[in-house]
Amino acid sequence: MILLLLAGLLALIALGVPVAYSLGISALLYIAASDPDLILVLPLQLFAGFDSYALISLPLFILMGLVMNSAEITARLIDFSMLLAGRFRNGLGLVNVLASMLFGGISGSSASDTASIGSVLIPEMENRGYRREVAAGITVASSTMGMVIPPSIPMVLYAVVAQESVGKLFLGGVFPGLIVGLLQMALVRLLVKRGTELDAERASSESAAKRTLRSLPVLAMPVFVVGAVVFGIATATESAALGVLYAGACGFALTRALKPRDFWGCLRTAALTSAKIMIVIALSQAYIWILALERVPESIAGFVTGLGLGATGTLLIVNVIVLAAGTVIDVSPAILLLTPVFAPALESLGVSPVLFGVLLVSGLAVGACTPPVGTCLNVGAAISNLEIGTIFRGAAPFLAANAVTLLLVTLFPILAMWLPSLLIP
Amino acid sequence: MRLHEFERRLTRTLEWLLAAGMLCVFGTIVVLVAMRYLFESGLVGANEMATVAFVYLSSIGAAVAVGRGEHIRVELLSKVAGENGRRALDIGSLALVALLNVIILATSLTWIATTGHTPMPASQVPRFVAQVSVPLGCGLAALYCCARIATHLREDSQG
Question: Distance from B1 to chain A by nearest Cα, in Å?
Fold first, then answer.
């Protein structure tokens, strides 16, 4: 029966049926074949998936990113990154990675990072002698940090599914995100060859202070949002709402780029975007319920512990599975499907759910940059007018930084666990 | 043409409702935080009402996304299929989505009749107020599927 469920799901996804409805239809097929009386489970589980106060943080974090985007903060972030890294060799490449690190801390989403940073920096890098596929590749690869560096929308989703602390997951992503960024910067310095060297000159201290001051309110935002959760000032949902308020204040009063009409558009887009994720969550509930009924998580846990690979060996295998899954399935459904399957098995081996969450999101972030599904690749393709295969070739060397980080965090869990254990005992 | 116009107006109305609902959810949570820190008080049942609004946002938003063809999907086959193949895949997919939504709609009525009278813990509002979002969203999604199938078929007949 479980084979029918899995085969049905894969066939429907391959046929192009939306992932959410593929989950629902395969669950329906299972119920029809096993016990039609269970049909009432469908509306019940669907409603249970929607009915969560914690998940209200999802549209609010999306709204926060959208409002920040409409507030045209990208220019300030790029200017600040230029101040820090622009004068070095391959400066614009470094600026691209640095701006993604900063933007990741504000938008919580890789796709909006690709769109915002890419639309400004890809043409600029091309003007300065970078090949277009390299410029697009750096943009797409560096945008993976948006999912890992807090606040992160996929981390919120994982926290709700795994019933873990959002604050711990946010903190768990800090060092892995920074390591990805630093390694990508090193790769930009080492690997990128280009024709002209025409980056920024060293700024005078007066100008540097002025530019830093100008960027400070924007840079303070992730500290404000994450700090509110970590120090128990507000729940994740409340801190997301406060983040929207802060972003709105930046847009209306600071940059003055945000108009009421834009804000209304952001509200509509946030509701629609979150609904697309929420329906996957809601319809996956019936699917997960069936997996539990068939004792699939227990079977996998038994199989995994029976292998005798230990926590690290198992995590390495899980990393490979996550990377493979990420290439064919989008981040939200992948989190919803993989978490209930692997989390119990890993917990039985003593792996912290926070560590698994950080590794899962970091691995799936790579998937967002790989064909055929890669959301960031598609956004990058739309901006740069390149084929996704070409962009992937440009991004692949920099994605090595993500793979190395995954390996490092797997081998040295303290990289993800130190900050959460320090600040949230 | 009339169907297309109806679909366009429905989408515009629902999108307006989604934006307004989102504003309400955001506003409620900000007010709750402000009340907690400024006046050390809260609003009984406000969290529940924000969740109810969120449930409606999700179910109606999912239906609108069906109408706009924006749901998360893997486009492996449709990318290699020709124009006709792509259309056939889309019609098949929409028919399956419509079928699932109709089945959930039908079964949800029984479920609401059985459990809908139970009050919510804080606000004491009957649960059916939130539960109705399920048949509403499913009904709208099925309607959008039918409209899109009709549009495809008309395009087919016009060559």
Answer: 26
